[in-house]
Write a structure and sequence with these properties.
Helices cover about 40% and strands about 15% of the residues. Helix 2 runs antiparallel to helix 3, helix 5 runs parallel beside helix 6 and helix 9 crosses helix 11. It is an alpha/beta fold and about 475 residues long. It has a domain of about 250 residues: Amidase signature (AS) domain (Amidase signature (AS) enzymes, Alpha-Beta Complex). Strand 10 and strand 11 form a beta hairpin. The relative contact order is 0.13. Strands 1-3-2-4-6-5-10-11-9-7-8 form an 11-stranded mixed beta sheet, with helices on both faces. It has 15 helices and 11 strands. The chain binds glutamine. The site of glutamine has 13 residues, from loops.
Amino acid sequence: MDIPSLTIDQVRDGLRTRQFSSVELTSAALKFAREENPKTNAYLTFAEDRALEAAKSVDEKLARGEDPGPLAGVPVAVKDVIVTKGLRTTCGSRLLANFIPPYDATAIQRLEAAGGVILGKTNCDEFAMGSSNENSAFGPVRNPHALDRVPGGSSGGSAAAVAQGTAVVALGSDTGGSIRQPASFCGVVGVTPTYGRVSRYGLTAFASSLDHIGPLGRSVRDAALLLRVIAGRDPLDSTSAEAPVPDYLAHLNGDVKGLKLGLPREYLKDLTSETGNLIAGAVEKLKELGCEVRDISLPATDYAIDCYYVIATAEASSNLARYDGVRYTFRSSFSGTLSDMYRNTRGEGFGAECKRRIMLGTYVLSSGYYDAYYLKAQKVRALIARDFTKAFSEVDAIVAPVSPFPAFKIGEKIDDPMAMYLSDIYTITGDLAGIPCMSVPCGTTAEGLPVGMQILTRHFDETRMFRLADAFERAGGANG
Ligand code: GLN
């Protein structure tokens, strides 16, 4: 078995034809992941016992002639902001370096019930705040395509693991681009589903009205299958939607003839020329496939970053209040008054980016500023959503770049938060509108750095998004 290139279909076939058992595959995958990990620092924790136990149960089901589930035996990596019962979940933070959650997230329960094998937990920016994975308390992740470059963030570990071949698929989380941007930088598929499509129960909260769990994979097919497994209403998350979950794979028929696509002009500013050329090549390819591409305008895009950094920091400042040194593991050793304990725990526990956001968020919510910032940002958010609704009355899907530039060097933007925030200029809008969006590999730069194309569709229309991405992937991307 060629572990780094395995697909879900190959795992299923291999198990069915008894080429390997699930325990054999899991042991080999764990060994490979452990050997490769020092190159990228993608995994923070390996889940040896849990993985082998899950694999054993798949083998037993197969031996009894039972259906072991759609993800049977598939090695999966999970971003370390998604809680796993009995398995350390750090959120990339010093504050949770020894935190062992008492329950599993709904997405975790569903993926294990479908036979998935969790190999371990992946590195990420602290509490998913970042675009480069350099904000982790456990060191940066390196991009498997160029080890001196970032993998993107905040789901950098998950994207790197899938690109490196140390997991077949992975779970990430996206609040402003954290699945699509690292997927683009690492040359894999990354999906941000419709808000409410996947339960957030057990996803550590960053900005609750924007947070999503979503899949990463080496193919559209694999990502779509993983989404199908984890999606659907969950009584434990009141924002999860009742909407039925279609069989996405049944719709991957390659037929995209006559599909009307919009190319938003606001997403073609601020691009590097190489990224621009690759997106132009992708658009040509989509036309060859029979799609009709037209220019559209999403005028409120210009305010997206400002709007996002008001709403996301406001929600984060509230969500992060729970890390007080009492309820979770880390507490400063400083002894003094109760407020000294809070202050010192939070001062020592949080990294610089989290502190920056707590301060910004507290400021925009404070009395006197609430209307000027928070309320205003909510109004702008409505305008951004309205732009999309209007666009989707004319086109079936929107295509765009994922990020203005490919993977940058480690250290290049770390001292310039505004430059860092620009990484997500094209992805933040999808989260603010709550629509499904994804990154599909589009080509590589002269230096060999991957670049992704973004596809966005109407609420709950993941089916069309996957069909278009799959047709594009089959045609070989922009370079095909
Ligand atoms: N890079 C953005 C931020 O830092 C998005 C992060 C995310 O999607 N989790 O907030």
